[in-house]
Structures are given as structure tokens and as C-alpha cells.
Amino acid sequence: MSEPMTNPVDPDVDLHVPAERQEVRPSPWPVLVVISAGGVLGALARYGLQHAFPHHADQFAWATFAINAAGCLLIGVLMALITELWSGRRLLRPFLGVGVLGGFTTFSTYVVDIQQALTAGAARAALVYLAATVMVALLAVWTGATLTSQALRRRPRPREAGAQR
Length: 165
Fold this sequence. Notes:
Elements lengths: L17 H4 L7 H24 L9 H23 L7 H13 L2 H13 L3 H32 L11
């Protein structure tokens, strides 16, 4: 009988690749601590913005919309940077991606905003908000990742050690 399969803390780690296997550590505590710390920071930033720009139930939730769009853009930027520039930093993606940006973006509030708009009789606002958030979020992730990847490809490369000038 084979051993039960356990999922690594980071689900995109391919355990068949030795370099990636090193990302999975026996103790999940460092990862959980940085996710928690980042989540607190992201949630506090979101809370502050939502309270600075409140809306009524029958209005378009601009603050939540902007938070989710900005967070998705930054997630795209972060993923490109981690993939192409900062690949060896084990706690960076859990802290910034899962923690800070996961705590900052709020798709649960997005759903509550839609439900409240429908209850308040603002079906049109709810429908526009529903569709616009999904489209803008997907476009923002793609834009962030694409523009960052292009910028990284255009940057000057450091000279090789020992190269002649």
C-alpha cells in the first residue's frame, strides 16, 4: 500500500523537481506567520479605504471595486516579479500574495454588496457591479503580469562576473 499523498504548503510546487521540492519545509509555521502578518496589513488597508469611501446599499460600491481592481493588478505584478526576478525568496509570495493582497482584496464583500443592492431594489447597479468587477479583475491581473514581464525583459542585464569591458 502506498503512502497517503499530502499537499505541500505551496500547491504550485512540483515535488518531482528537486529545486522546487526544497520550497516545502517540514514546519508550516514560518509560512503561516507571514501570511497572517500580511493578511492583517492588507485587511487594515482595505478597511481604511472602505470607511474613507462608503456607499449606500443602492449605489455602486466604488471603494470595493477599486480595491479589488488594484489588488488584482498588484497580484499580476507580483506574480511576474516572483516568477522572473525573485524566484528564490520562499516567504515573499505567501506574505505579499496570500497575506497582504489576499487580505486587501475582498470578493466576499463584493458578493455582499451585490446582495445588498438587490435587496435595496438596485438590480441594474448590482448587475453592472457583478459583471464589471469580474471583467476588470481578470483584465487587471493580466495587465499587471504582462506589463511587468515586458518591463523586466527590457531592463539592462548586469554584466557577467569576470566579463571584459
